[in-house]
Amino acid sequence: MAYAPSFQPVKILSDEGSEEKGENARLSVFVGAIAVSDLVKATLGPKGMDKILQSMGRGNAVSVTNDGATILKSIHLDNPAAKVLVEISKAQDDEVGDGTTSVTVLAGELLREAEKLVQQKIHPQTIIEAWRQATAVAKDALTSVAMDHSADSALFKSDLIKIAKTTLSSKILQQEKEFFANLCVEAVLRLKGSTDLDAIHIIKKSGGSLKDSYLEEGFILEKKIGVGQPKRLENAKILIANTPMDTDKIKIFGSKVRATSTSEVAAIEEAERKKMLQKCQKIVDHGINCFINRQLIYNLPEQYFTSKGVVSIEHADFEGIERLALVTGAEIVSTFDHPELVKLGTCGLIEEVMIGEDKVIRFSGVPVGEACTIVLRGATSHMLDEAERSIHDALCVLSQTVKEPRVVLGAGASEMLMAKAVEELALKTEGKQSIAMQSFAIALRQLPAIIAENGGFDSSELVANLRAAHNKGQKSAGLNMQNGTIGDAEQMGIYESFKAKRQILLSATEAAEMILRVDNIIRAAPRKREEDHHG
Q1: How far apart are CA 267 and CA 306, in angstroms?
Q2: What 3-state DSSP class applies to 246?
Q3: Which end of the chain has the lower number of beta carbons within 10 A, N or C?
Q4: Percent of the chain beyond pLDDT 90?
Q5: Is the Cβ–Cβ distance between 201 and 220 less than 8 Å?
Q6: What residue spans of 22-148 are helical by DSSP H?
Q7: CA distance 223 to 363
């Protein structure tokens, strides 16, 4: 709305558009962001609770998870500030893999404090300026206590196992975290510093218990070898293709064939059969002994390959052939006229093995030595899905830590350290910015408070004791969530990736800043499609 000189309101937006201004707009974004933060708050920490996500669409699919990014991705939100928090959670998941809940909760707590400051008539720009100084001091404090043991491989491996255990301790795998931490570290160390996790394949098989999971060298494809073909093949030369291998229809769009007798139909079928056999011969001429196709392989080509001693594997899905091409060093081809231009894959041994009650194909001795497969076993599909998400988070964090080897202490020690540094800055700062810095420290201290609360402990007492310990100079003091006491995070072996911690601090502050700047929400009406009056 605007006002003309005659003080009559003039409508600027269309009927379907709307606008919120000033305090109303700010309140709307605060409420939305804090609601999203409160939604995932209960999942934080080793004693966090799970959420059941039920789809209202066809099939009513159900998943049980406590992964912040998964929860936020699955819910549809209307509030614009809430969507910002979902975006930072996704960015944290893509960048580091873990800390998706922490980043959302920290942003929410910052905005909760900002709401109080705005009510005290402190201008948002003053708050933002103070927060930026506080972030810089907190980041420096975190960097000063970061440890780098990458020069000592045994000590660094120990650090990686501790980080994996910390990551898995808040997941469904916490009962077997020692076993899975070692399994994840072994898989990541095979990558030799690469952060490309495509070489690590995860397959899920119902049955058994989580402890029955294992790491398999090479690549496992969940398919079967063709009928009458050898189930074991050594020194394989592999052609990977995405091509139709069926003969039951003419592949010209809109074509029709009119035949006047059965003999003409038989002649057409014979021509198609010859064409398919020629295609099969071209494939065999590549000098291969294993053919893997993205699409189906019908009976005729399968018989031909069997007669020529070529093992054929059909219907390897898109992801399957992409990974296979990566680990065997092959290229995916669709035409076979120039064998000299085709890059074949190699593999030491291809064999059909049983996992649980299913037959799968194992490729071992592949050129990409880092390729491996994690086989997950478990009672239910929901448990396996959550276990896969947990393993993926751990693999992401570990691969990033191999690249950026610095580690910091977990258990709330890092947050208390950063809060202490910010409070010291606030004591030296004059004016309203000092109050804003104090609120930043309070928001940081809320993370260990929420972790303690989720464990059913007295968060006020624990955080007060933790604060006192840090002020006495005990930099490694953290929460012992087994006993509900204050312990030494270093002795408890609770380590976290420096990169993940730094990213949580920076992403949460930037998101909170962005939301705090808002003083106007304009909802534009969708542009209507104009009817075409021509013709």
Answers
A1: 25
A2: coil
A3: C
A4: 0
A5: yes
A6: 22-41, 68-74, 80-95, 100-119, 124-145
A7: 12
Site of tokens 């218990």: 209
What's the residue count for the chain?
A: 535
Quote the tokens at residue 117: 């400051």
Least confident of 237-251, 279-293, 336-350: 237-251
> What is the set of active-site residues?
67, 100-101, 393
* C-alpha 238, offset from chain centre: 31
Confidence bin at 520 (pLDDT 50/70/90)? low
Q: Output the six-digit token pair for 18.
A: 């709307």
Tell me what pLDDT residue 498 has.
87
254 φ/ψ angles, rounded to the nearest 5 degrees: 80, 10
- Rounded CA separation 301/72 (Å): 48
Question: Amino acid identity, residue 317?
Answer: D
What is the three-state SS of 197-239? HHHEEEEEEEECCHHHCEEEECEEECCCCCCCCCCEEEEEEEE
- Rounded to 5°, angle at Cα 88 from 83 and 91: 125
pLDDT of residue 17: 58
Distance separating alpha carbons of residues 401 and 379, to the nearest angstrom: 32
Can you give the pTM of this predicted structure?
Answer: 0.79
Tell me, what DSSP letter sits at residue 363? Answer: E
CB-based contacts of 515: which residues, under 8 Å, 6+ apart? 29, 30, 33, 81, 84, 107, 111
CA dihedral defined by 77, 87, 322, 355, rounded to 10 degrees? -70
**DSSP-assigned letter for residue 297:** B
Q: Which residues, in sequence order, are CB contacts of 125 under 8 Å at separation 6+?
A: none
Cβ atoms of 43 and 51 within 8 Å: the answer is yes
Assigned token pair, 185: 């570290």
CA nearest 511: which of 48, 114, 117?
114
